[in-house]
Design brief:
Blueprint (H helix, E strand, L loop, with lengths): L17 E3 H8 L3 H10 L13 E3 H16 L4 H29 L1
Antiparallel strand pairs: 1-2
Helix pairs in contact: 3-4
Length: about 110
C-alpha cells in the first residue's frame, strides 16, 4: 500500500512581536517594493514615518503573508488582495465574537 506524506509548515506569530521593514520582507519572502505597495494600498499600517523607521506587529506580518499569498496564488490585483484581507479579518473577528456569544449562552 502506498502512503502519501504531506508536509505542513507554519510559523506562530506573537501579537506583541515587532519587526522592522527588512525583517518583514524576510519573513514574507517579499522584496522591498512589494512591502511598500502593501503599505501604500493600506493593507499594512506600520508605526513610524519613514521606511527606515517602520515597525510592524505580529498581526501585520500575518496580513502581509495573507495578501502576498492572494496576489501570488489567486493572481488578484493589489486592490483585490487588500479587500480580501479586510474581509477575511472581519470574518475572523465575527467568528471570535460568535464563539464568545455561544459560550455565554451555554452557561
Amino acid at each position: 500500500m502506498r502512503q502519501t506524506v504531506i508536509e505542513i509548515e507554519g510559523v506562530l506569530l506573537d501579537e506583541g512581536l515587532t519587526v522592522t521593514f527588512t525583517e518583514l520582507g524576510q519573513l514574507c519572502g517579499a522584496d522591498a517594493e512589494a512591502i511598500e505597495r502593501l503599505v501604500a494600498e493600506g493593507v499594512l499600517r506600520p508605526v513610524g514615518r519613514r521606511r527606515e523607521e517602520w515597525c510592524f506587529s505580529g498581526r501585520e506580518i500575518g496580513r502581509a503573508r495573507r495578501a502576498l499569498r492572494l496576489l501570488r496564488d489567486l493572481e488578484l490585483n493589489l486592490a483585490g488582495a487588500a479587500l480580501a484581507v479586510e474581509l477575511l479579518d472581519e470574518i475572523e473577528a465575527l467568528r471570535a465574537r460568535l464563539r464568545l456569544l455561544e459560550r455565554d449562552v451555554d452557561r
